[in-house]
Amino acid sequence: MEEEVAVRSLAALAQPVRLRIFRALVVVGHAGMTPGAMQEGLEIPAATLSFHLKELLHAGLVTQERASRNLIYRAAYDRMNALLAFLTENCCQGEACGTSGADADAAAACNC
């Protein structure tokens, strides 16, 4: 991941409402959620939710898919994992963590 992409992702998450939305999408998993379900569950007005979803989409942290008349939003796990890997790639004072960088759980398994 390039530094510019990481900064854009972190900036998008550095806002309380967007962080709540992203975390809710992570919790529901690959099934995703409609804006209506997010609005109801997170108690966020529709216009506010729309604005924040647009920012998360622009940062590449969520995906959007049309399913019939509904939009389904999902957390972009590949981007999330790439961001975590970017943040921890130089952990352990530059020494290897003992896990593979390609391993999605490498950041969590590092025992620095």
Describe the structure.
This protein is mainly α and 112 residues long. Helices cover 54% and strands 11% of the residues. It contains 6 helices and 2 strands. It has helices spanning 3-13, 16-28, 35-42, 46-58, 77-88, 106-109, and strands at residues 62-67, 70-75. Strands 1-2 form a two-stranded antiparallel sheet. The longest helix is centred in the first third of the chain and has 13 residues, at 16-28. It is elongated. The mean pLDDT is 88.
DSSP strand tally: 2
- Secondary-structure class: mainly alpha
Ends apart, CA distance between termini:
22 Å
Element pattern in H and E? HHHHEEHH
Quick one: overall form?
A: elongated
Q: Please give the radius of gyration in angstroms.
A: 16 Å
Largest sheet: 2 strands, antiparallel
Helix content: 40-55%
Any low-confidence stretches, pLDDT <50, length ≥5? none
Q: How many helical stretches?
A: 6
Strand content: 5-15%
Overall pLDDT: 88
> Strand order within the widest sheet?
1-2
